[in-house]
Each structure stands twice: as structure tokens, then as C-alpha cells.
Amino acid sequence: MTTALQDVRRRSIVSVSDRQQQKQDAQQKLEEAMVIGSEERLLQAVRDGVDAGLDAQELRKTRDALAKIRQQDGARQAIAIAIQRGTEKCLEAAVARGQRAGLSDEAGGQLREAQHLLTCLKKDVLRRSCAEALAFINSRRLPPGARHRNEEGDLAGAWIDLRAALDSADRFGMDAEEIDEARHALRQHALSQALAEITNRDMSIKQWQSKMETSTDLDLPDMQARKNFIVMWQDAVDNRSVSALQVCIKEGDCLLVPNQFLSVAKRALVEQIQRLIQEAAAAATILPKPENDGQDVCAICLEGGALMAMPCCSRQSTSNLIHFACMSGLLRCPFCRGTI
């Protein structure tokens, strides 16, 4: 009885030892298969590992390598088919699959060949897109008011298409000479749009100043004059100088600044002239009358020069005379209060 138990124990020890040896052999095969990188060797090593009792964690690395090889093989087949078909859609899908599978894009590889072919196709499409957009834009070169509303929308869409094509051209490394005409047209369009915005007389002062700040990089005409106008306008409104306000209004009309600038300046001019009239009237009642030297003077600024009578209430030999510059901006006659 004792001898039988000893035999069973001995066989059990031998079995455990054999099992451990099998696992060691299986692990060694896994390592060798990983080095070789053959799908067949990896698959056989995984099977031997399963038979030897290796757990999932021990087999995980080899199984991942096997899955990657199969994924790459499928990607290579897809790339080969895409190259044969030569369509943009197939090439895009095949290149994306190859990149996900981790294929190398080194020179001479299938992925590099597919990428090159796809780039050439993309460039051809972009050339056609630029040419078609430019042709459409050139065929619609009419003043905005002379175009139908639908044509305005189509033209705006053509500019958007052209801008998108040029953005893609940068990504695909197209030669500058190929897209120079399109870039020039788009640049001129941007200048035209910016000029139309900063000469929009319905904008508020705040909106116009913000638009001026965002347009500093564009080579627009009279930009420095418009910047100087802002300073001139602010000084004239703050100081309430009649001559400065008159110059400011004239300059603003020439530069097509928003009407709000001119409204503020004109209101300040009217208020200042009215104030001067009131001050002159008050001074006339308290100051001694100057000696009459036979020279007429302006009833507002009390200076001589080229004077004119008010057409609403003037009489022959009247002394109610005013400079033309002092009269500009008046809404009512300072003598009879009639509307000018």
C-alpha cells in the first residue's frame, strides 16, 4: 500500500515538472515568434501556448502582434486595390486604413505610393476648382447694384469655394505659380470688401473704429488719413473750434466716414455758433459802441471782410451782415429767427 502511494506521488511530481517545462518551451516559442514577426509562427506559438496552459495575460502580447500583422495585411491589400482603381475616394480610405494599421510611409512602400497618387489627384481637383471659381467670378464682374440677388449669392459662394481651394492647396504643397492668379484675385476681393466696410456710412463710430483696427494689415487707400481724422474729429469736438469743426466736416465727407461722426461735429458746430451769437448779442448791450470808421463788421465775430446780408430780413443799407463762414451751420437767422 505504501509503495503504491509513493508511485502515485512520484508520477505527480514528474507530471508537474513536465508541465512547467512545457510552459517554458511555449514562452520561448512566443519570444522567438515575436522576433521573427511571421504570422504563421505567431499563430503556432499562440496555439502551443494555449496547449501548454499559458494564461491570457502571458499570451496577450503575442496575440496583439498577430492582430496587428493581420490588420496590416488587410491594409496592404486595400492599398493595392486603391492604387489599381486610382479614384480619390478609394485612395483616401486606403491611406487612412494604412495609417491606422501603422504601415510605414518610407520611400518605395505601398503607403507612400498611395499618398503620392492621392496628392496628385487632389492637386488636379484643386486646379480645376480654382479655375472654375475664377471663371465664374470674372464672368460676373458687374457693379453690386447691377447684379440680381441670386447672382450675388452665387458670387459669394464662388469666393468661398476659391478660398477653400487655396487653403487646401497650402496643405498639399502646390506650387505658388499654379495658384498665383487665384491668390491675387482673392487678395483684391478682400481689399474691396474691407474698403466697402470702412466706407459704410451707416456704421456707428464704435463699429467703424473696430473695423479700422482689424484692417490695419490691409493696404487700403487713405488709411492713415482716416486714422488722423479720428484724432482731428475728437479734438474739434472737444475744443469747439468753429474753423476746426468746419474742416473736420469737410474732411469726413471726403473720406466717407460714418454719418455719426459728421452728425456729432455738425451739432457741435451749430451749438458753438449759437453760443457765439448769444455772446455777441450780450456784448453789444453792455459795451460802448465803437467809433464808426465807416467799415461794416460781421454781427457774429465782429470782424470785417467779405460780408453778406441775410436774404430773409435784410434791408437796403442794413448793418445786419455776416461772414459766409459764420453763417454756415446756422439753422435760423440770428436777427429774425426765421428758418434758413
**Rg calc:** 44 Å
Task: Please report the distance between the alpha carbons of the first and last residues.
Answer: 140 Å
- Structural category is mainly alpha
N-to-C order of helices and strands: HHHHHHHHHHHEEH
Would you write up a description of this structure?
This protein is mainly alpha-helical. It folds into three domains: 22-198, no CATH class; 203-287, no CATH class; 291-340, no CATH class. The chain has twelve helices and two strands. It has helices at 2-36, 39-51, 56-85, 88-101, 110-139, 149-171, 180-198, 205-214, 223-239, 242-255, 259-286, 324-327, and strands spanning 307-309, 321-323. The protein has a two-stranded antiparallel sheet with strand order 1-2. Helix 3 packs across helix 5 and helix 6 (149-171) crosses helix 7 (180-198). The radius of gyration is 44 Å and the shape is rod-shaped. Mean pLDDT is 77; it is low at 142-149 and 286-292.
Briefly say what this structure is.
The chain is mostly helical.
List the helices and strands and how they pair.
Layout: H1 2-36, H2 39-51, H3 56-85, H4 88-101, H5 110-139, H6 149-171, H7 180-198, H8 205-214, H9 223-239, H10 242-255, H11 259-286, E1 307-309, E2 321-323, H12 324-327
Antiparallel strand pairs: 1-2
Helix pairs in contact: 1-2, 1-3, 2-3, 3-4, 3-5, 4-5, 5-6, 6-7, 9-10, 10-11
Tags for this model:
340 residues, mainly alpha, two-stranded antiparallel ribbon
